[in-house]
Amino acid sequence: MSTVLSGTPSDVRSGTKTASARIGARDYVLILLQLGLLALLLRQFQIESAAFLRLALLAFGGFAVHALLPLRYRLPFFLALSLAGIVVVLDPVNGLSIIAMGIVLIGICHLPVSFRARGLLLIAVGALLVALRAKWLAGPVPDVIWPILGSMFMFRIIVYFYDLRHDTVTPVSPVRTLAYFFMLPNACFPLFPVVDYQAFRRNYYDDDAYRTYQTGVDWMLRGVVHLILYRAVYYHLTLAPSEVTGPGQLLQFLVANFLLYLRVSGLFHMIVGMLYLFGFRLPETHNRYLLASSFTDFWRRINIYWKDFMQRIFYYPTVFRLRKLGTTKAMVLATLLVFTLTWFLHAYQWFWLRGTLLFSPQDVLFWTILGCLVVVNALYELKHGRERSLRNTPQTWRSLGVVTLKTFATFWAICVLWSFWTADSVEQWLSLWSALKGQYTWSVLLYPAVVLAVIVIGSLERNPLRNVKPSKVDQHEWRRARLVTAVSLVVLVGVSIEAVHQRFGGEVATTIHSLRSGHLSRLDMAKLERGYYENLLSVDRFNSQLWEVYSKRPANWLDVQGANLKRFTGGFAQNELIPSFVSTTPYGTISTNRWGMRDKDYERTPPPNTFRIAVLGASTVMGWGVGDGETFESIVEERLNRDKPNQAYAGYEMLNFGVPGHQPPQELVTLDYALSFKPNAIYYVATTREISRADSYLIEIVQKKVPVPYAPLRDIVDRAGLEPSMDEATAMKRLRPFGAEILSWIYRHMVEDARSHGVIPVFVFLPALPEELWQDETVEILKIAGAAGFPVIDLSGVYKGQETAALSLAEWDHHPNRRGHQLIAARLEDALRQMRPSVLGADVQASSN
After folding, report:
1. DSSP strand pairing (23-24 vs 4-5)
2. What percent of the chain has pLDDT over 70?
3. What is the rounded CA–CA span in Å between residue 595 and residue 580?
4. What are 767-819's pLDDT values in tens digits?
């Protein structure tokens, strides 16, 4: 190589870090080209968040400078880049607050007092931070700071303080210490691997620079692939417990639930790969954990950093202290202690990241069962020995078959155990197994066959040596890896381009398009939606994206949106809007009239020659997140009165009977109230998931022991066998077969009740945001509404061509904003004009009122 930047590759043979830190010009350009493609890939697939893209661009640009600097300047530059990243991702105030609080904690570790005194002081300061995080004490620390601060210090401070106590030889470097705590990727990732301080220090530029950088690119690409696979599972394979009604669905639920861990492994590969770009040759975070052939093997392969952290800080010291009891007893007791502490520290991590305590029975039982299984497995290996992955033994068909069967059994055992851990309750998990009584078809073999094929293919490749320096990798393997990386980058970037993947057509193009967006799945969107009205914050799956959305939401968000405008009434409807209520929000004033409507103060009887329309619906109808006069109902009313589509009427009145959180059964009560205002027409504004909403509300009513005043609905509840003590998942399974029947009766009752009063019933279907997630029930809802006798106005596609973020109130609240209501109003007005006179009154007949 003729052109060299800061040295030549041949200098690596000298064994010095200065030599190994140098990179050739050609290699430097190749790395930059790959990082450019990787940045494009992050953008095209919207990996994680816009903040992460900014951080990645900062890191890639920083690498371009960092790799050219003399070695002595690189660590300070990395530290400066890391501190800048914190400020860029958060904001100057929050970023500097995290840095200042972190420096205080680090400073305590170096006070000129005894280690015992420093430890006690750290505990005292930690207790103060706990009180602030739990809001036992009022303080100026914003909620957004805690997840990142906790991620940087909740475990790293333990590792660092432990090393200070036991390493009395290595001199302390302030720059290295700060770089360790404020690592560049950490600003975007609350869930961060427990990086070992010794490995962070010892492995810094201990190998060829180019190969270290290239390994970082490889691992970041691997992380992107994991995250794309995670999205495929998260969007298209996950099921709600209530949807598991047969053996095939049960297997899908178990596999998909476990594979959601791909997000953790993907993020960890992204994080460590980015650190490789700055010379930190850290160990691999995961080692093909899906191919674990025993419980101890699974523990060794998954989240390796956590396993190493627990062994170094707790396991080995415990074994050493208990060695007088004998090796076996010491090992068993130390292992049980490790899993007990893992449970406790998991709850500790949950607290810092989410602000709530995690002490659920399934969490305790999961770690207890897994710990006992690992102990039993370890004792067996201790007695009979185990074939270590590093042993170069010849592979035979018999050995391959044994390993495959053991891996197959371990995989399904972990899936079952994992489903128990992530269940919302023990009762919910137990309800899953009723699916085994369902119909057995050939589809039951699908997931076992796929899992077996993956295991066989994975087992054919010999397990490579772990944590080997990149320079020691065989040249043939290295060249093959370069080809795989280059082809993968080009192919993934290519298929991410809309003009390219649209050529595939049909479901393939739709699936690829869905993978290019990091939105919530339909299941988590449903949980988020319930949280609007019921203050449900149960996001028990630790790898779910929902908790991240909740963590960004202000604690007073529901109050800001006017959540206190409802009052409990009892009876079947349970709640209604408070009359004469006024609330000031950032989106404008929310006020109700004397009748408890989000509207003008209409008289109960309409004026002469006025066509009155009663609009029924939930939060979007009421206008959650927009000011008075900005709801789509108000806009349409104003336009109808301005343009007079029917000259037989002097004016139009649209009365807003929307109530946030109301489900279809509750609208039956609202309809009775609305009819007392003598409307000419009733517009029922339905939204997505009407069947599921109706089912959920009937279950809620039964669980609360509220009488059902409608005989047909009582009959369905009896036929489904619902009981107040029944958990929600089981109840939903019982009621799901009656879903269409429930909604059909509700719609028919609305139509018949309206017509018996001489009122025109109109069905308006308004999709929720993001519309593409909520299409599973749409066709059936529209069919049921038409069969019930409603004239149907379908507003599907009302948001077409618009970004969801531009029409939603916030990432954690997808109610349409002011612009969204304007789009709805324009589309609804056009539909009304096209359908008159059937929905706006006959041209030759004035209002009978």
Report:
1. antiparallel
2. 89
3. 8
4. 988 877 777 889 999 999 999 999 999 999 999 888 888 888 877 778 899 99
Q: Which stretch of DSSP H or E encloses residue 379?
A: helix 361-384
pLDDT of residue 670: 95
Could you tell me if 135 and 169 are in contact, meaning their C-beta atoms sit under 8 angstroms apart? no
Helix H or strand E segment including 59: helix 50-66
Instruction: Name the nearest CA neighbour of 28 among 56, 69, 57, 77.
Output: 69
Name all contacts of 70-77 with Cβ < 8 Å and 24+ positions apart: 70/6, 71/17, 71/18, 71/21, 71/205, 74/21, 74/205, 74/278, 74/279, 75/175, 75/176, 75/179, 75/204, 76/175
Using CA atoms, how far apart are residues 23 and 252, in angstroms rounded to an integer? 48
Cβ 227 vs Cβ 266: under 8 Å = yes
For the domain made up of 604-835, the CATH class stated in words is alpha beta
The first and second tokens of residue 189, run together, are: 């990732």
Structure tokens at 437: 């009584």
Express each pLDDT in 736-751 by its tens digit: 999 999 999 999 999 9
* Three-class secondary structure assignment of 435-483: HHHCCCCHHHHHHHHHHHHHHHHHHHCCCCCCCCCHHHCCHHHHHHHHH
Amino acid identity of residue 526, one-letter, is: A
Residue 355's φ and ψ, nearest 5 degrees, are: 85, 5
Question: Looking at residues 191-214, what average pLDDT do you find?
Answer: 93
Tell me the DSSP string of 190-206: SS-----HHHHHHTBT-
Distance CA 778, CA 10 (A): 66
Strands 808-810 and 792-794: unpaired
Structure confidence at residue 791 (pLDDT): 93
Secondary structure in 3-state letters for 675-704: HCCCCCEEEEEECCCHHHHHHHHHHHHHHC
Tell me how far apart the alpha carbons of residues 607 and 738 are, in angstroms, rounded to a whole number.
43
For 256-305, the three-class secondary structure string (H helix, E strand, C coil) is HHHHCCHHHHHHHHHHHHHHHCCCECCCCCCCCHHHCCCHHHHHHHCCHH
Q: Which of 37, 484, 47 is nearest to 228 (CA)?
A: 47
| Whether 470 contacts 210, CB under 8 Å | no
